[in-house]
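Purpose: get a first structural picture of the assembly so the mutagenesis plan has something to point at.
Setup: two entries, given in the order below. No constraints added.
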Amino acid sequence: MNERVSKYVAWGLVLALLQIFIFRGINFGWGDFYYVHILVYPVFIMILPINTPRTYVLLIAFFLGLLLDIFYLTPGIHSSALVFMAFIRTPLLNLLEPRGGYKVNSSPTPYHLKFNWFLGYASLMLFAHHLFYFSVEFFSIAHLLHIWMKTIFSFFFSMSFLLAFSIIFNPKY
Amino acid sequence: MLNLLRFIIKNGAVFLFFLLQVICFWMIVTFNESQRTIFLHTTVLLTSGVQEKISNFYDYWNLYHVSDSLAAENALLLEKVMNQTGANPDTLLIPFEGEHFFSVIPAKVIYNSISGRNNQLLINRGKSAGLDRGMGVIDKQNGIVGITRDCTQNYCRLISILHTQSMISARIKDRNYFGSAVWRNTNPQLLQLEAIPVHAVFESGDTVVTSGYSTVFPAGIPIGIIEDYHLPPGSNFYQIDLRLINDLARVKYVYIVNDLMAEEKMYHLNLIENE
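Result (structure tokens, whole complex):
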């Protein structure tokens, strides 16, 4: 169990560092508007063990978001989006529960469940996160079009990296 | 209480979620410049309607103080005007230093009547404000209200010009015939101008002003306009109906004119009467 926890901590740090040192610098778009921001760190909240207490998930999300916010110099924005995603994690897991239920001590990863299942689960989670994140970033419904543009384009790129990550590393816990 | 606690524990995640979101949004609007601007702007937009209503409400209650200060200001200006017209500008007239004939005191009417035969008013200034018996009370710059009668420390009773004992020394403006304005009938809009001699030349529409021949009112304050006149058979004096300029039913703020030379003038007037 302790080994599992330390592995998760390591993964969390790796994802946070990846985000801060690599993906933070990758922003591109068309014209004078940057539509694409790649956000990969939500995958850490996604792959937490299924039996993790909901309050722990929320708190982990809050502090991971805060860590990113410190480096993004945007206090509260990443935390808010990540806490929101953590909040919808349990209902979504209940909704997507396969026939026969989840295995004991398993995580919602392609290793424990089917790849298609993970694709659907990760898409919903990531889209919700991106939509919330950009809504909070713009903080105004006057920019509804920009919010959706950013959400859709960024979601596409983030999802690509997330799938690449899960195929390459395929965490086995 | 226990049920509430159980409810909170059972839905701990939901409460934690809202708590964390509140913290996040607090951080967002506190530390992020653009989000804070939007937040403040939105708050202003949402609350400005309510704020305006609150402000209107307080303004309404402040009107009392506002009108009080305006009354004081008006009194000051009125005093200046009176003392200027009192000394007729003339090339040969050199104004004396510190020449000051009238002082004006603002007051508020706290009781008024117009329907009786002997109408009176009560104002909220008395001896402490320098009021005394026999001072003229005017309504802004147009129209007279009455004369002070009994003054206590903080209040003063006036006899209205709509009073049987009221008698105002008046003059037809620009024609300089003088007489007395009295109240003979029961219409609170009409006074009678008496003692205008039969040879006087005037017409309906002429303005009647105070004459200044007494210690009550300074000269030149408009009283009313001549509406109708006739010469009773066998009389040497016209009977003139005078329509008041001001509406005594609506008088709220008044100014008491204190003739600073009253005592000296009264000395001479008494001498004339006694001879």
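The two ends of chain A are 11 Å apart (CA to CA).
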